[in-house]
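Structure, all two chains, one model.
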Amino acid sequence: MPNVYAVIMAGGVGTRFWPRSREKSPKQLLEIVGKKSMIQNTVSRISDLIDPKNIMIVTNKIQKLSIAKQLPNVPEENIITEPIGRNTAPCIGLAGLFVRRMDPEAVMVVLPADHIMHDEEEFRRVLRLATWVAYESGKLVTVGIQPTRPETGYGYIQVVDEDDGKNPYFKKGVYKVKTFAEKPNAETAKVFLQSGDFLWNSGMFIWRVDTILKEIETHIPEMYAELMKIDEAIGHKNYDNIVETTYKIIRGISIDYGVMEKAKEVYVLKGNFGWSDVGSWDEVYRISGKDENGNSITGQAFLHNTKNSMVYAGSKIVATVGVQDLIIIATDDAVLVCKQGESQEVKEVVDYLRRKQKNDYL
Amino acid sequence: MPNVYAVIMAGGVGTRFWPRSREKSPKQLLEIVGKKSMIQNTVSRISDLIDPKNIMIVTNKIQKLSIAKQLPNVPEENIITEPIGRNTAPCIGLAGLFVRRMDPEAVMVVLPADHIMHDEEEFRRVLRLATWVAYESGKLVTVGIQPTRPETGYGYIQVVDEDDGKNPYFKKGVYKVKTFAEKPNAETAKVFLQSGDFLWNSGMFIWRVDTILKEIETHIPEMYAELMKIDEAIGHKNYDNIVETTYKIIRGISIDYGVMEKAKEVYVLKGNFGWSDVGSWDEVYRISGKDENGNSITGQAFLHNTKNSMVYAGSKIVATVGVQDLIIIATDDAVLVCKQGESQEVKEVVDYLRRKQKNDYL
């Protein structure tokens, strides 16, 4: 078996989780679901599979220290920082440079830091199989999630669900990708769901490091050229400067758009392990335990004549009277009251705070 | 003209104003409406009429110091404390004992600490007239509020609105009370409103101190007997003990039920001065200024797609998304989210906190 490295992408703030998520305490460092932070759960979920010494984290300078504290078993030199977020392609390319130096034949498992899986055993089974396919085939591999609703917030992956004889892994439940589809409208999402051969694009990728770097070279050559400048600088005094300069001019582009959609052969495994990207407070409510009134409560709260609401009380006490379908999040310095189903709009609050330069609340 | 004393009743907590009102910072000591506290406004509203040296405050031991701080012009010895709240009759009787010692012919103007009047000039005109009638007639005088809606939360006063030749003050707009009515149901409240001869019972009273003490003696003789024990103890070492003992056994009874409803002759003046007892957060919203979306905001707040809501942000920032008809009150340690129209139920929250002995939040 190959050396397996995880690359955990942990650069975002998760503005939709305001007021809990802040620049200094972003979503992945919070205990949004469960008792450990999302990134701690992400690491411990794969710890049977990948040695913490083989776990790389890509983040930014603001978060680096907190991540190091939360993940004492991950070597500090494995925490790579980007000077600015430029979407997933540069992030994955940068991590690839470091992985290749350790083992040019290694398999990289790329995972977002802030997803959850209900059935972790099944998740690891899928990752093991994906790792083997990625290593043996030398192709790009991804995990698609079996859709459970006509979600318009995700991209979709259409699979070849008949055995055309050209896919040696078909019998193991590994499919060829037919096409990647952008986030659909509501109508199209329903069609996708009914068709049965569309999966949600989860943003999880498995490939050999040589494979992905070659694909970046083929499909985004100008980015590859910039990455090579960084590669030369690794271990030298001018590394920080070169990265800084490169990231100023590099295009912000996703690995999906830049590579996956253009690659000739991509394999996809079906994920049936209760995945959630925990993308909004609405989603947190959806996956939370609820009492007989449909309320989900964290902390000290008294809900009077209240239904289908989620309350996070932080260090305060929260009381509600006669309300329903609300999301209420109270932190030391801020309170959010949001209608269920509209928590995507929480980013508008963060935009407002940014415009008004209320930096203490960002 | 007689000596006029104000007796301001300031013993309540105003539990319906939780989380702003607490045992140590009750409603009347808060800036609920305007920039001064309710009791400060109550005192300054009558300062043209009554010298601060003639203002008595009846409160409890917890509030005494804060009241003294808020009202530096009121002599500290004028702040009388009750060991326990026993409704308005003992409170008024106790204050009467002190007023009688200063001037047995004085007129007492009894006012709640936590009401507001929009037209303060008109309010003072009514009080001046009431004072004169009370002094000259030696009768009980009250102020009824011209109703503007079929309110079920107040008692009503029916007036004799025709000149029967037995009321020397009729032409001045001073009426005889026909009857006092308890809080009506919704149906009855509509009838009261339409009839035109029903007024809201405002809880403001004007009378000579000798008149009210005599009326208490007549209608609640056992309370009068207890008050006399206190009267004897005034100025003596055992005063505190006697008051304590007396209040343990004294009946908690309102002046309305104990005296007003039983008295033979009561005069009432019509109040048309934009009165509010500011009885709930709903009422605060009703009298607040609102923006074009019907929102009333105090403090730092960002209301996104939000209508007809009131937000008090305290020292925090409050953000709302996609909600309407809410009352949101955030303090340092607590948050209330209440549906408009249900703020009477806020007392349920306080009851809960009391049951759970969460004394820090009371």
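DSSP finds eleven helices and 15 strands in chain A.
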